[in-house]
Specification:
With 311 residues, this protein is an alpha/beta fold. 36% of the residues lie in helices and 19% in strands.
């Protein structure tokens, strides 16, 4: 352990091979840890195409400072985890169109959301963590809900951030927000940065607009660490093809917190409320003026809510 951000202990990124399912019997990924092993574990599950460094280290350190052992990792097909570049690239337009029409796509996919849940369980196994506080954002929130449904014995608490049950009755994403995740791959770093910043401008809410200079620096770091746009497409296909979780959420009996911005253009606020009414005794924190993003100004509010929920 070395120190990072004050006195918070830090374990640097560590490669790990974990059991997998679907087309991979095992995958490789990396994780790092903020905080003491003596504290309750908090596992952060990233969103669509999001690398583990999308969970900002200062945010992780703040959570660790509340008495939590914070673990972040790369999902399959993102960051430094196993890439499925030899697999097919799904026709995401057709899949999304089918889902918007209320049907579940049936075509074979490189992997499913259930495989991503198995990866997460595999990481907990490798770390000898029997039960963890699970936090998932966006696609990671879908994985977190599915994990709690299928492996409730591994979950101490559940926090679902800016995510959805996938119910067909919910409002659709705004077209410009959906387009952020369906644009053609960038041809180079400069185009990637420009596309990413433009996308964040769409996703951020009115109360906390994007700091564009910081956003460009952050996007550049993401590109330099790893850029595999077909991986994002395969992750999106796995999520789009998942059935609605709403009928299963009554199985979740652990304390559950829903955190959602009231200006989210990708998953409107009704999506978060649907989770809150579907999970018994769930609590909800509505972030006013916030879109599909976690700007630094709201970190204290989010950190406080998660700390109160988990410790």
């Amino acid at each position: 352990m070395t120190a990072i951000t004050g006195s918070v202990p830090y374990q640097a990124p560590t490669p790990v091979r974990i059991n997998g399912t679907g087309r991979a019997t095992a995958i490789e990924t990396v994780y790092d840890i903020f905080g003491s092993a003596a504290d309750p574990p908090l596992l952060l599950i990233a969103g669509l195409g999001m690398q583990m460094i999308g969970w900002d280290e200062k945010l992780c350190a703040q959570l660790a400072g509340c008495g939590l052992q914070v673990i972040r990792f790369d999902n399959r097909d993102s960051g430094l985890a196993t890439k499925f570049t030899g697999a097919s690239v799904p026709d995401i337009g057709r899949l999304v169109q089918a889902r918007l029409q209320g049907t579940i796509p049936q075509e074979p996919l490189p992997y499913t959301a259930y495989d991503m849940v198995a990866d997460t369980i595999g990481l907990l196994d490798e770390l000898d963590i029997e039960r963890a506080n699970i936090v998932g954002v966006s696609m990671g929130g879908v994985i977190a809900q599915l994990l709690a449904v299928e492996h409730l014995d591994r979950v101490r608490t559940l926090t679902a951030m800016m995510t959805t049950t996938g119910s067909a009755a919910l409002p659709l994403p705004r077209p410009e927000a959906l387009a952020v995740f369906m644009r053609p791959p960038a041809k180079n770093k400069a185009e990637y940065i420009e596309n990413t910043v433009q996308g964040w401008h769409i996703l951020y809410g009115s109360a906390y607009p994007l700091d564009e200079e910081e956003g460009r620096l952050r996007a550049g770091r993401y590109y330099d660490r790893s850029y595999e746009p077909t991986g994002t497409t395969r992750q999106l296909a796995a999520t789009v093809a998942l059935e609605s979780l709403k009928p299963k959420l009554s199985r979740i009996t652990v304390p559950t917190l829903v955190i959602h911005g009231d200006e989210d253009p990708l998953f409107p606020i009704e999506c978060g409320r649907d989770i809150a009414i579907s999970v018994p005794n769930a609590k909800m924190l509505v972030l006013e003026g916030v879109g599909h993003a976690l700007p630094p100004a709201i970190w204290p509010q989010v950190v406080g809510a998660i700390a109160n929920h988990t410790t």
